[in-house]
């Protein structure tokens, strides 16, 4: 899937090829996260027609910080379906059941830490599939 499949994506998302962990030229969608709290979101309207959403997520190798942990929250119809923490140099596959889900959101944020520097992270979502 590409960015055009998502429901009104925010303008800070881009599509390109990214280097993530040990993978070069990963085709995906990316956004920069620089603060804590609510971050960027991607939304899909599934019309209750699918059973499983699968995607990969990681931090681009050119992120300004390599010390931050990305938090990925998957929400279906307003209820949390899954949450994962993704450190730098890791590609995390996420697979979530989406039976009877219409509005699905992938919410990204940074884990809060005592060291709150202002360096940003480039979050990359790739290999999005619906079954």
Main attributes?
single chain, 131 residues, mainly beta, five-stranded antiparallel sheet, four-stranded antiparallel sheet, 56% strand
Polypeptide structure, described:
There is one protein chain. A 5-stranded antiparallel β-sheet has the order 1-2-9-4-7, with no helix packed on it. The protein is globular. By secondary structure, it is mainly β. About 0% of the residues lie in helices and about 55% in strands.
The secondary structure category is mainly beta
Share of helix among residues?
Answer: under 10%
Low-confidence stretches are: none
How large a portion of the residues is in β-strands, by DSSP E?
Answer: over 45%
**Tally of separate helices:** 0
Number of strands: 9
The rounded Rg comes to 14 Å
Oligomer: single chain
* Overall 3D form: globular
**Major sheet details:** 5 strands, antiparallel
- Mean pLDDT value: 95
Question: Element order, helices and strands?
Answer: EEEEEEEEE
Q: How do the strands line up in the largest sheet?
A: 1-2-9-4-7
Roughly how many Å apart are the termini? 12 Å
